[in-house]
Write a structure and sequence with these properties.
This protein has 5 helices and 14 strands. A 7-stranded mixed β-sheet has the order 1-2-5-9-8-7-6, sandwiched between helices. Strands 13-12-11-10-14 form a 5-stranded antiparallel β-sheet. A two-stranded antiparallel sheet has the order 3-4. The radius of gyration is 18 Å and the shape is globular. 35% of the residues are buried.
């Protein structure tokens, strides 16, 4: 299992792990309950309330990953989904490409960055999980394990359990077809009519599937079946 380091406070676990990685080149993980400038996908910010949520990052060598980048992203989301579903005893779905949803609220986000340390290539996997937070101000799409399931957790025990599960499973070889199948089986709003915003206009559509190249296929009311990459279309929920 990867060594795990606790950080009392940090701006971003994905940034902080790079210094610690120099002492643990085989791989390492860090976590905090006080992240002040967390990062999301494509420059988005991930904000968290102190001592209510978990920010976690793990560094794994790229040479030990036998999936393409897109499928590795799916594999990561599946592992997090499985852990949360088991811990909360709830239905957890994956909102393409990397958010975890319970009862139509986002409770977890994932950011995977490819970085170099001491001439080695690593995947830095950052995971933010809303655990105990109740108030999300005006962020209507956000929730936590507590708000969505009514279940409360001891943060340190939760973090340790998550690290044990995730670090033991992230590098287990998994067939590409199995990854793609599991991702689509748990895909949020799959085969349901949803509202999408495309080029400033809204229209109904039905998510059909996510493919191995990272695209989401949507059958749109006006434009028919099309594929989209992240940020090319927005689902309103």
């Amino acid at each position: 299992m990867f060594p795990l380091h606790y950080l009392p406070e940090t701006s971003s676990t994905n940034d902080a792990i790079l210094n610690i990685l120099l002492e643990h080149p085989a791989g390492v993980a860090v976590f905090t309950f006080h992240q002040t400038a967390g990062k999301g996908q494509y420059g988005n910010k991930w904000t968290m309330t102190k001592d209510e949520n978990l920010a976690y990052s793990i560094a794994v060598k790229c040479e030990n990953v036998f999936l393409t980048g897109n499928l590795f992203n799916y594999h990561t989301a599946i592992l997090v989904r499985n852990f949360l579903a088991n811990m909360a005893d709830a239905k957890v779905e994956i909102k393409w490409p990397n958010d975890l949803i319970i009862n139509h609220k986002k409770i977890c986000g994932i950011l995977i960055e490819k970085m170099k340390s001491n001439f080695q290539d690593y995947y830095i996997i950052g995971i933010g999980i809303n655990v105990l937070q109740k108030d999300f101000d005006d962020i209507k799409q956000a929730g936590s394990l507590l708000t969505q399931t009514g279940k409360s957790f001891v943060l340190n025990e939760f973090a340790q359990s998550f690290h044990e599960y995730f670090s033991e499973n992230i590098l287990i070889p998994t067939p590409e077809e199995a990854v793609l199948t599991q991702f689509n089986q748990n895909l949020y709003r799959k085969n349901a009519i949803s509202v999408f915003e495309l080029n400033g206009l809204r229209q109904n559509g039905i998510i059909k599937n996510a493919d191995e190249n990272g695209f989401l296929w949507i059958d749109l009311e006006n434009d028919g079946l099309q594929k989209f990459f992240f940020k090319e279309i927005e689902m309103l929920y």
